[in-house]
Amino acid sequence: MTIKFKTRITDLLGIEHPVLCGGMMHLSDAKYVAAVANAGAMGFISALTFPDPKQLKDEIQKCRDLAGNKTFGVNLYISPRDDANSRLDNLLSVVRDENVAVVETAGGNPGFIVPLMKEAGIKVIHKVPAVRFALSAERAGVDAIILVGAECGGHPGYMMVGSMVQGAEGPQKLSTPVILGGGIGHGSQLTAALTMGCEGVLMGTRMLISEEIWAHRDYKQRIVEGTGLDSVVVQTTVKNHHRVLHNETSEAVLELERQGIKDYESFSHLLSGSLAYKAYVSGDTDQGLLDYGQSACFANEIAPVQQIISQFMDEALCAANRIPTLLR
Predict the structure, then answer these.
(1) What's this model's pTM, rounded to 2 decimal places?
(2) Is Oxidoreductase included in the keywords of this UniProt record (predicted)?
(3) pLDDT above 60 (res 227)
(4) What is the overall mean pLDDT for the chain?
């Protein structure tokens, strides 16, 4: 009999493994998310990747066809800039009407989204970079919290708290189930997170080299060749810390920051998501702010999602089997 982990998150989401693969802008589409679901984990379609409501509806239905009876979610990024949330507003009704199982919210306060989703019977998991924000989300009524540490690709928060601290502090302070993210890419980290009181883990960078991710193979090969140490954190001068691959674009942003420049217009041409999209299409990783975390050190081979998740769970069980040998 195969041993499996059973946690509050596997029960809450009806998934086989306590593993979530976060929604990634431009990359988390139906094909990838369905592959994650079929591997026994939970994936999230990135809603803003499909800004037209009809596009998002079609993508959800496509994922449902590919995933069969397996559950999956939708990622809803809440911008700290109110003017940018108009795109999201147009997609919320699609998520409700399609009755997805769960949404992963991130960025701004999810307070206005929680009741909309709960009315439709949709669970809400909110991603934050520190326990202080998790407490606010818990009061807002979310079903679970993702705590990400400073090692994560994307936005680790301006306080830059490490994952080992987040993983131990979160379950102590929160009654809501905690999922640990940031630098997660080896199964032993799942076992460690569970022993600290977390209910699961979140992966992002580790999954970038999945065969089901549509991005150019040269882009994936750059991730394989990376160590995770070749990441940099930009936009620190405006407290919008962003961990990305160190390339020409990120170096240009760092240079502006060294000059003390803070106004958005000076950075806007470098921050554009269209540059990252072009990199995914062309494989030219010198351009664009490409989310890239320290767990890239574990992404050593382009492989199918099923193989990545299976290996991850084998590593977790191996680590769990070691624990009894250490007890006296």
Answers:
(1) 0.94
(2) yes
(3) yes
(4) 94
